[in-house]
């Protein structure tokens, strides 16, 4: 299989199989996330799992560096993330159908103006719909609570109700936020490689309460999701 050529076939992940030699790159932000993914993959040699660092810039630089030295058929940005209230609960998973640099733009007296509106490029990277559908169905079949929707990439973790509401209005349907997806996706897009972003929800987006983050639970969900990915991409 070639994900680039045969994305439509991924609609039926359970019967399709990747061709021998397919390589998948998983970019995480920190070692705890990498280790959770590795536990789930259980030695699946088709996957390389890397620590990119925190934030979109580190993610883009790290991903671009890896992609310059090896060939991959799919790149996945994976880790924990914040769920938008009413869209993704703590302990659930979000599969991005769009990866959005939600704070890339300019503040104006009339409000936020995105890079797109400024005419400097695109803040939105689409994800192949068949890939999203196939992966989401497999995760659901494995008993996980899974949602799809835009996943926002932010440079500053949202910490107030006001900012949460503003982001939700800026990107209708926003399901989760994290800090790396857009950087990873931009590097993959630059090389024409399909991208996925998967976030295990450790906290709700809103007033900052780091003590309430359920990191261990989210990492356990990330591990389970990774074992499903290993199965589904077999
Ligand atoms: O302390 C630990 O053991 C630990 C283990 C794994 C991950 C962490 C992190 O702090 C990772 C930072 C990472 O988390 C993403 N994230 C999570 N929630 C949010 C959020 O509400 N808004 C934005 N980003 C979030 C983010 O991608 C960071 O890279 C700690």
Automatic annotation (TrEMBL):
Q: Which organism is it from?
A: Desulforamulus putei DSM 12395
Which residues does the UniProt record annotate as the domain Nucleoside phosphorylase? Answer: 49-233
Reaction it catalyzes: futalosine + H2O = dehypoxanthine futalosine + hypoxanthine
- State the UniProt keywords alphabetically: Hydrolase, Menaquinone biosynthesis
Protein name (record)? Futalosine hydrolase
**Pathway it belongs to?**
Quinol/quinone metabolism; menaquinone biosynthesis
In terms of superkingdom, the source organism counts as: Bacteria
Q: What Gene Ontology molecular function terms does this protein carry?
A: adenosylhomocysteine nucleosidase activity; methylthioadenosine nucleosidase activity
Report whether Hydrolase shows up as a keyword of the record.
Answer: yes
Q: Does the keyword Hydrolase apply?
A: yes
The family note in this entry says:
Belongs to the PNP/UDP phosphorylase family. Futalosine hydrolase subfamily.
Membrane-spanning residues where?
none
* Function comment: Catalyzes the hydrolysis of futalosine (FL) to dehypoxanthine futalosine (DHFL) and hypoxanthine, a step in the biosynthesis of menaquinone (MK, vitamin K2).
Q: What does the record give as EC number?
A: 3.2.2.26
One GO-annotated biological process of the protein: menaquinone biosynthetic process
Q: Which HAMAP family match?
A: MqnB
UniProt enzyme class: hydrolase
